[in-house]
């Protein structure tokens, strides 16, 4: 029993991390925005310690950058960083499809179909938040079915770097993807066709890699100048 430690601090740190990550991905904390731990702590209703820990974690994940005694701010999207993240996420989803399809039951297929219906409706309504939430839910079915915790953790870490760009380009580029591609993936899963499921998964996620080449053009959508690649850790 002596090895047990209080968990309150960890939970507060995680709450701060999740809230700040969501605000960055949604654009509520815009690229280049200055981040002051005292201000963020007050807004979140937390002490400064968990906020500092959350900012350090977000820095490791490429969403925040800091210079000691100078600044802490939200990073601006950079093509190389987004491209690398998209490539890693694609490979992890391919692995999830390859290992998850044989383990997927009727409930999983039903969940994917329902998620795709919500996705299609959200795209028609240009509701980017609902579209991306449904997209995440659909693909998460295979991730969970695969049982690969390392793949799940990698996807969770790097997907926000892609999503924050998607949110800014959605209205212009329709970058949330295609319900038709999702339907092809679902049919392959229902048929137990692993190779087709992997092929469609590759097609879906490879398209996001193109966003890396568009990331520098985010300035045209947001009005925020894109930096040189060297400015992102």
Automatic annotation (TrEMBL):
<dbReference type="InterPro" id="IPR036390">
    <property type="entry name" value="WH_DNA-bd_sf"/>
</dbReference>
<keyword id="KW-0805">Transcription regulation</keyword>
<dbReference type="InterPro" id="IPR036388">
    <property type="entry name" value="WH-like_DNA-bd_sf"/>
</dbReference>
<feature type="domain" description="HTH gntR-type">
    <location>
        <begin position="10"/>
        <end position="77"/>
    </location>
</feature>
<dbReference type="InterPro" id="IPR008920">
    <property type="entry name" value="TF_FadR/GntR_C"/>
</dbReference>
<dbReference type="InterPro" id="IPR000524">
    <property type="entry name" value="Tscrpt_reg_HTH_GntR"/>
</dbReference>
<keyword id="KW-0238">DNA-binding</keyword>
<dbReference type="Pfam" id="PF07729">
    <property type="entry name" value="FCD"/>
</dbReference>
<protein>
    <submittedName>
        <fullName>GntR family transcriptional regulator</fullName>
    </submittedName>
</protein>
<dbReference type="InterPro" id="IPR011711">
    <property type="entry name" value="GntR_C"/>
</dbReference>
<dbReference type="Pfam" id="PF00392">
    <property type="entry name" value="GntR"/>
</dbReference>
<keyword id="KW-0804">Transcription</keyword>
């Amino acid at each position: 029993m002596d090895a047990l430690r209080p968990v309150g601090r960890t939970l507060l740190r995680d709450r701060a991390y999740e809230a700040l990550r969501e605000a960055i991905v949604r654009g509520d904390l815009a690229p280049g925005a200055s981040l002051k731990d005292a201000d963020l702590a007050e807004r979140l209703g937390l002490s400064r310690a968990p906020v500092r820990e959350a900012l350090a974690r977000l820095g490791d994940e490429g969403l925040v950058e800091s210079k000691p005694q100078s600044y802490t701010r939200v990073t601006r999207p950079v093509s190389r960083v987004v491209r690398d993240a998209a490539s890693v996420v694609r490979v992890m989803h391919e692995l999830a499809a390859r290992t998850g399809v044989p383990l997927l039951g009727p409930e999983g297929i039903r969940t994917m179909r329902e998620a795709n219906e919500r996705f299609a409706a959200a795209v028609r309504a240009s509701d980017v938040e609902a579209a991306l939430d449904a997209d995440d839910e659909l693909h998460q079915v295979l991730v969970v079915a695969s049982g690969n915790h390392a793949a799940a953790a990698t996807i969770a870490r790097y997907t926000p770097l892609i999503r924050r760009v998607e949110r800014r380009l959605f209205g212009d580029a329709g970058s949330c993807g295609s319900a038709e591609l999702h339907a092809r993936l679902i049919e392959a899963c229902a048929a137990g066709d692993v190779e087709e499921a992997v092929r469609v998964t590759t097609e879906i996620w490879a398209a996001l890699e193109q966003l890396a080449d568009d990331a520098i053009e985010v300035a045209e959508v947001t009005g925020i100048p894109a930096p040189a690649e060297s400015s992102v850790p």
